[in-house]
Amino acid sequence: MASGNSNLAVRVAYGSLAVGILVLALKGYAAWATGSIALFSDALESVVNVVTAIVALIAVRLAARPADASLPYGYYKAEYFSAVVIGIFIAVAALLIFREAYYGFINPREFKLDPLGLSVSVLATGINAGWAWWLSRRGREEQSPALIADGRHLWTDVVSTLGVLIGVLLAAATGFVQLDAILAALVGVAILWSGWELIKQSVIGLMDVAVEPKLLNQIREIISANADGALEAHDIRTRQAGAMTFIDFHLVVPGTMSVEAAHAICDGIELKLREAVERAQITIHVEPENKAKHSGIVVV
Would you say the CATH fold of 213-298 matches that of 3-206? Predict the structure, then answer.
């Protein structure tokens, strides 16, 4: 990851932590003012938001470190590990919410529609929504799994909070106090699903998943258009690791071609690939024509 891009990702991660602490304070007040179990569970989810923001910050800072002797391919996958940790914290929060919801259902207690408390909760939701949109956008631009994971979780938080606020009003209007506990349980289900999705996507990333078919076709077209003088390119492999895209393939050249000429072809292909894929690590294995497989990209 380029230095400027990594610094931006780190600043965004710090912003997430600051927003998480602010929203936690606001939702904590709303839960205290109303005495609602559902709003308490919503505040508990914000505790997870702060923890996940800390984990994402650590991961983004670690992923920005340059490759070294111990990790010659870089620290990019640190962000995938962070997303797994975030998913686990989300699951723990869901279990705590289920506990509160269960006791609240069998022993329902009255809550009050404190206008200031509800207004503060709405304000916190608005802040979360704005930051979730910004975070998701920057995460995609920076190709940061940690920021994308944090943004997705915040969107879940926004949706669940809106549901809780509507439900609390309905519970007060109908007098069905146990609806408050039911809503808390639904919040737990929502964030549990969010945690599962994060863990699933992170595991896929840790398994060295290939780039999307559209980008792979673009890579193949670039190789074909810029391999003049070579005979074929085969065994094209790609993998995504955080913001970094790894590309490697075999390039077959005539047996009589000089090393300098073959190197020039490789340089030309690499230049064009880097124009299309900003953060790419490219490995090209040059082979003589007797190694041709007559498959893959046949240049001549």
Answer: no
Residue by residue, DSSP assigns the chain as: --HHHHHHHHHHHHHHHHHHHHHHHHHHHHHHHH--HHHHHHHHHHHHHHHHHHHHHHHHHHHTSPP-SS-TT-STTHHHHHHHHHHHHHHHHHHHHHHHHHHHHHS-------HHHHHHHHHHHHHHHHHHHHHHHHHHHHT-HHHHHHHHHHHHHHHHHHHHHHHHHHHHHH--TTHHHHHHHHHHHHHHHHHHHHHHHHHHHHTTPPPPHHHHHHHHHHHHHT-BTB-EEEEEEEEEETTEEEEEEEEEE-TT--HHHHHHHHHHHHHHHHHHSSSEEEEEEEEEGGG--S-SEE--
Amino acid (1-letter code) at residue 238: T
**Domain limits, the chain:** 3-206, 213-298
Q: Which CATH class is domain 213-298?
A: alpha beta
pLDDT in tens, 213-270: 888 999 999 999 998 899 899 889 998 776 678 899 999 999 889 999 999 999 999 9
Under a CB-based contact definition with an 8 Å cutoff, are residues 58 and 16 in contact? no
Question: Which architecture, in CATH terms, is 3-206?
Answer: Up-down Bundle (1.20)
pTM: 0.58
Residues whose CB falls within 8 Å of the CB of residue 185, separated by 6 or more in sequence, listed in order: 97, 98, 101, 102, 105
Residues 153 and 273: their CA atoms lie apart, in Å, by: 34
pLDDT digits (tens, 9 = 90+) for 170-213: 777 777 777 777 877 777 787 777 777 777 767 766 676 778 88
